[in-house]
């Protein structure tokens, strides 16, 4: 009798586990190579330069940036510029690191598929991160632009930043153009029109991840 009760409890527990939430789909990440020197790791908002090869589950290759002799690709991490599996799988990576990502369909091209990718495809990517740069919307860029500690950008600060960018890229100074660019940035970014760009207005939101 005792055993029966025990096994009954067991099967009830098992049933409740099965009925419970389905596990969240995950990206399977395997680090194939990590460089000895790693100055910084990739995070949301960074710009990443990557080479990649893409494979179907049966091992057929469907894309290779190197074999196609193409340039490595720049992407901004965490803003769904690429498939969700990449946004998740390319975090905390060092420049020079190589990873194998196995991405379920729900984090890739899903039920519909896309182009060469059939519906419900699990995809494998061999990715090499070539370079990391601060994204235009990164926390670091904001701090660089914010000359005092008030956590918001004034028109003056934005204009100073535009001026510095001109110098950095070796363009001759052009006051009118710089003024217009700063005004354009404000037009787009000062969402609540209070005359300042707050850090919240400036940085990307990652709510969907
Ligand atoms: Ca400021
Ligand atoms: Ca504002």
TrEMBL record:
Q: Does Cell membrane count among this protein's keywords?
A: no
What GO cellular-component annotations does this UniProt entry give?
A: endoplasmic reticulum
Q: Which SUPFAM superfamilies match?
A: EF-hand, FKBP-like
Residues in domain EF-hand? 177-209
Q: Where does the record locate the signal sequence feature?
A: 1-20
| Reactions mediated catalytically | [protein]-peptidylproline (omega=180) = [protein]-peptidylproline (omega=0)
- Keywords on this record? Calcium, Endoplasmic reticulum, Glycoprotein, Isomerase, Metal-binding, Repeat, Rotamase, Signal
Enzyme Commission number, as recorded = 5.2.1.8
**Gene Ontology MF annotations:** calcium ion binding; peptidyl-prolyl cis-trans isomerase activity
Any one Pfam family match given in the protein's UniProt record, by short name: FKBP_C
Limits of the PPIase FKBP-type domain: 45-133
Does the keyword section mention Glycoprotein? Answer: yes
PANTHER family for the chain? PEPTIDYL-PROLYL CIS-TRANS ISOMERASE FKBP14, PEPTIDYL-PROLYL CIS-TRANS ISOMERASE FKBP7/14
Record-given protein name = peptidylprolyl isomerase
Q: Which organism is it from?
A: Cyprinodon variegatus
């Amino acid at each position: 009798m005792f055993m029966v009760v025990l096994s009954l409890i067991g099967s009830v527990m098992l049933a409740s586990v099965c009925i419970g939430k389905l596990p969240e789909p995950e990206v399977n990440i395997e680090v194939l190579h990590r460089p000895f020197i790693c100055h910084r790791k990739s995070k949301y908002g960074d710009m990443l330069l990557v080479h990649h090869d893409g494979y179907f589950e049966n091992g057929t290759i469907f894309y290779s940036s190197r074999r196609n002799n193409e340039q490595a690709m720049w992407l901004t991490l965490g803003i769904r510029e690429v498939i969700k599996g990449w946004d998740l799988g390319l975090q905390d990576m060092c420049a020079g690191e190589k990873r194998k990502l196995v991405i379920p369909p729900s984090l890739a091209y899903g039920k519909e598929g896309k182009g060469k990718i059939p519906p419900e495809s699990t995809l494998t990517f061999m990715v090499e991160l070539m370079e990391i740069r601060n994204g235009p919307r990164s926390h670091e860029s904001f701090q660089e632009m914010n000359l005092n500690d008030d956590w918001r950008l004034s028109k003056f600060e934005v204009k100073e930043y535009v001026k510095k960018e001109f110098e950095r890229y070796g363009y001759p100074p052009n006051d009118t153009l710089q003024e217009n660019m700063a005004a354009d940035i404000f037009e787009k970014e000062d969402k609540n029109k209070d005359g300042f760009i707050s850090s919240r207005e400036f940085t990307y939101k990652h709510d969907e991840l």
